[in-house]
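Suppose you are handed a protein chain with no further information: no name, no annotation, nothing but its sequence. What can you learn? This example shows the usual starting point.
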Amino acid sequence: MNEIADRYRDQGVGAVFLYTHEAHPGEIYPRLTSMAQKFSNARDLRDKLGVTRSILVDALDGACHRAYGSMPNMTWIFNKSGVPVYKSDWTDAASVENALQYFLDVKRRRRSGARLAPFHVERLDYRTQDREGFYAGLDRNGPKAVSEFRAAFG
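A reasonable first move is to predict its three-dimensional structure. Written in structure tokens, the prediction is:
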């Protein structure tokens, strides 16, 4: 996602990462109990995982996360008026980039004089499943996160 943010920055596309909470807490990154802990985890996200986008930190109670759907790995794209034009319940770089290309093309078409009217679309996208990468991410939180996930989901 960092690469996509970098690639489209010059076209007026901004990108932020909203840090909400640990989806699978463990010994290293336990359940959040304070904003100081939350800010520390967000800094680790930036430093250890190399997130280069601006990171916004949600309230301790997750108010922003709940307001936008509470899914564990969502992506939203808003136009400059603040209207949501893309919502995905899972972040997938190819899907996000496809949407950005489409909406930038809409902008180009409007500038060339096309009269366009919005309409709602639902689409099923596909993402690559990376079980090893997923478990490596769980492992960053600690062995408890891995064992609890395996116990819950097999």
